[in-house]
Automatic annotation (TrEMBL):
Residues 12-209 form the ABC-2 type transporter transmembrane domain. This is ABC-2 type transport system permease protein. It is a multi-pass membrane protein. The keyword Membrane applies. Keywords: Membrane, Transmembrane, Transmembrane helix. The keyword Transmembrane applies. It is found in: Membrane. It comes from Microbacterium amylolyticum. It comes from the Bacteria. The chain crosses the membrane at residues 21-46, 52-72, 98-125, 131-153, 165-183, 220-240. The lineage of its organism: Bacteria, Bacillati, Actinomycetota, Actinomycetes, Micrococcales.
Length: 243
């Protein structure tokens, strides 16, 4: 089967499997994005422009993290336990086609939530967006790193453990990761930890792309995300290629 036909077949298969649930997940992501932008602002005793900009530019990263590192790993864990992954591995097609098709579908459902969160934040708070032309390559980089890690750990780890880890990531991303607030608010030891983990760097590059006149990401953030993406997808591909 030609590679183009393989990819098209896997796309159709995954779309039919997920069906209307994709619409539900897209709506949930919109709610999460608005919860970060609007809901978290209620925690602020006064509406500070800088803090509002952190919330507004952090919401897209939260949407991608919740989709790629929480929702998709839980879906993959369920697929492993039901035998669906074994079915995919038995198909006479490249197993990398499954990764490409699935990542594309899940990345696509994050776009409405990200766009709506930016539009609503701009209408309600006018936080000072200054969107750079780098927003598209940055989105692709964050998608690659997020989904690489999500598919990697959910395929390599036992299903029950990956589901538990996904919940830890969700809680940690919202409460202990400098996505919606400056990193210098954290204890020094936790700042050091985040320098080696990907979530802080995802937020940094996304913030810079959305408000380039206010934020500036270090080049090392882009390099770290590229490395995490390669490690994640390599692990996921190795799992799928095993007989």
């Amino acid at each position: 089967m030609a590679a183009k036909n393989q990819l098209g077949t896997i796309f159709e298969l995954q779309l039919r499997k997920q069906g209307s649930y994709l619409v539900v997940f897209a709506i949930i992501m919109v709610i999460i994005a608005l919860g970060v932008v609007i809901g978290f602002s209620f925690l602020m005793p006064a509406q500070d422009d800088t803090q509002l900009l952190y919330l507004a530019t952090g919401a897209p990263t939260i949407v991608l993290v919740m989709t790629a590192l929480v929702t998709v790993p839980m879906q993959n864990a369920g697929a492993k336990m039901s035998g669906y992954i074994d079915f995919i591995k038995a198909l006479p097609s490249s197993r990398k086609s499954f990764l490409i098709a699935d990542v594309t579908i899940w990345a696509a459902i994050t776009v409405p939530a990200i766009a709506i969160s930016i539009l609503v934040a701009n209408l309600v708070f006018n936080p000072g967006y200054d969107i750079s032309w780098t927003i598209v390559p940055v989105f692709i980089l964050v998608v690659a790193s997020c989904f690489g890690i999500g598919y990697g750990y959910s395929f390599v780890m036992p299903a029950e453990l990956s589901m538990a880890l996904s919940q830890v990531i969700a809680f940690t991303a919202l409460m202990f990761t400098p996505i919606n607030f400056p990193i210098d608010r954290l204890p020094e030891w936790l700042q050091v930890v985040h320098m080696g983990l990907p979530l802080y760097h995802m937020a940094e590059v996304m913030r810079t792309a959305l408000a380039q006149s206010v934020f500036s990401a270090d080049p090392i953030s882009y390099i770290i995300l590229g490395v995490w993406a390669l490690i994640g997808f390599f692990g996921a591909a190795r799992f799928l290629e095993r007989a």
